[in-house]
Amino acid sequence: MESLNFTTLIPCKSSSGNLARPKLAANHHDVISQMGFAPLWIKRSKTEALRLRATFSSKAGSQDGASVVEDQKQKEEEKGVRFGAERDSSGSVIGFNLSPPNGEVAIDDGDVGSDRIEIAEDVSGKEKPKAKAKVTRSIVFVTAEAAPYSKTGGLGDVCGSLPVVLAGRGHRVMVVSPRYQNGTAADKKFSGAVDVGHTNVICFGGEQEVAFFHEYREGVDWVFVDHPSFHRPGNPYGDSFGAFGDNQFRFTLLAHAACEAPLVLPLGGYTYGQNCLFMVNDWHAGLVPLLLAAKYRPHGVYTDARSVLVIHNLAHQGVESAVTYKNLGLPAEWYGALEWVFPEWARAHALDKGEAVNILKGAVVTTDRILTVSEGYAWEITTVEGGSGLNGLISSRKSVLNGITNGIDVVEWDPSTDKHIASHYSANDLSGKVECKIALQKELGLPIRPDCPLIGFIGRLDYQKGIDLIQSGIPELMNEDVQFVMLGSGDVQCQDWMRLAEATYKDKFRGWVGFNVPVSHRITAGCDILLMPSRFEPCGLNQLYAMRYGTVPVVHSTGGLRDTVVNFNPYAPGGGEGTGWTFSPLTKESMLAVSHLSMLKFSPIWYS
Description:
26 strands; alpha/beta
């Protein structure tokens, strides 16, 4: 990737009418250096790591572009620093080489407006908290959900909190997400966003008009794409009858609008421009890297933009019939990037050719880097068992694949300040946790018993989350002296089962159908044990919240759960060490065995 120093001003409109794409006044760009994305994502290790940062010049550039490049090259040679890009077999830039003559990197401490390269050491492998970047990136998150505006799971949490952290470190950050209106109180969450204009995008056989709403909050530009297809009851993806049949249309609009937003929206008085880093989250935004490559770059737009595909859940890939390719707004010659053929056993009938388009596959092919939300999941998606049919393709791009474990919002999820819980407490003073437990038992109508282990489950009610294991194990678990509470929505049969279980085990089981953020906080704080028997879990956030609140996680050893939960070792010095219990294989017997062990070890030290 080349970092460009623009020597001309980019005009932009300040009105909120139909937005026109700004044009460069001249083509005078200074090529400063060549670098890859590897430095942006420092692997958590104990080895020394280097980070490369570049800033843009505020000085007027020379009118002779060639002479400026030569002057810059001469300066670099005088300092003995040479840059060379490393590429993988697909031609994608994956890193860089620095070759100083004496092993030291000289850094120009010129004026603040000058272009410079800074090398920073991270010897411990731990990122310094709240470190300020030297004005490096314009970052655009494209996502189907972002808390607090919309959320169904971890994707919304991450895309609602990570942009704020990045903005706090000096980056300019935009989040592009749909403006959902489902006729409930949740619609008020978008009340702070104002209409800043509209534009037309070409897809699905014609021009589609979309509007942009904008809210500036916590240093982030929150941009919401508005269209009638986002106005309906249900969650972002479907309703009680299943997934919406036009999801391909809805998220194609999102991708096209997200590519236009940095070019046409004068947020804060000026546009983000072309030199952006797009963070593409799951298949819903998967068309973004394809559009950059097929629609914009052939015309000299976004030539220096880069994209990072973040896979939160590989199981959802945006697969539709091959005949829908013509609706995506891509040139015909790019069909091969999305082409997908189902194996014979997965076809509907003997005459079915199995031809389809796979949006996530197209994103994997065209993106510059691939991230998953944990190191364990980065490995799992290269295996037959965890690759969901894309393992071969992803394995071929291993050189640009990394896993970074999700973080959590430690301000929102803090038991010492949480506004949703009955009593505050901390690691130094756990006395408030029993009050949270008593308040939860009272709210749910359970017998108030501080000495009885209280197990919780928070999550979607579907096959991935291991709900069938909980269903088969509840009869045996209810024979123990234990209470159990579940919060979630999803499969209708699972919801009905929760109601039946509550009626059967009146003094031991409670099921809350739906998702409620305050209730999830109270369950996390009030429970003693959090159960997560997921079949696969790219990262998982609930176990991180649980450990933050002194609630012991009991999890299946997979993906991010295996990465984040340290299995308790009772024989370690000092009476044992660990952060929870893990079990494997994924069977009812293994889950119950570890659950019984956790209850045997249950010691409510905060009650004494």
